[in-house]
Specification:
CATH architecture of the largest domain: 2-Layer Sandwich
Largest sheet: 3 strands, mixed
Radius of gyration: 20 Å
Number of helices: 7
Shape: elongated
Structural class: alpha+beta
Number of strands: 3
């Protein structure tokens, strides 16, 4: 019973990953790992990636001189980043569409407010199917965490 539930749970999670394109989102975040290698040590000393919102990479810049310089160079930098992303990905290629720069002295650690997508209703058929899969998990705390995660991702 538990093996069936975990196989079914795996299918549900795989489906959720596909629907939300989380694999592609994960590939985009590789930029935080290879940033210095792609842009060079000099730029990396003055500019660091902070977060990705949609298909835009936000970069904290040390001062206004570097910000102006990078605003002139953003397209070649973006092309280099996307080439690297394409080289490291399997399947559908993830890419960024834009680079945006902010002075590091600002509130760079918190991203600008997101536009909240409209909530869709919970599909009760999917909820019943997912609950049946969770029934095979003996730990009630884990079951509840999985149920909350599914609801958050499904709404």
């Amino acid at each position: 019973m538990a093996a069936e539930a975990s196989a079914g749970l795996g299918e549900v999670l795989e489906s959720l990953f596909r629907k939300r394109d989380w694999q592609g989102r994960l590939r985009l975040h590789q930029v935080f790992i290879f940033w210095e290698e792609v842009v060079g040590a000099e730029i990396a000393r003055h500019a660091q990636p902070q977060f990705i919102r949609g298909e835009t990479l936000w970069v904290a810049v040390s001062d206004s001189v570097w910000m102006q310089h990078l605003q002139f160079e953003w397209r070649p930098l973006l092309d280099l980043i996307n080439e690297r992303l394409a080289a490291g990905g399997e399947g559908r290629s993830a890419s960024l569409k834009e680079l945006r720069f902010q002075l590091a002295s600002g509130q760079i650690s918190s991203p600008p407010p997101a536009q909240t997508p409209p909530r869709r209703g919970i599909d009760h058929h999917e909820l019943a199917r997912f609950s049946a899969l969770l029934a095979g998990i003996e730990d009630p705390e884990l079951r509840e965490v999985m149920r909350r995660a599914w609801r958050a991702c499904s709404s």
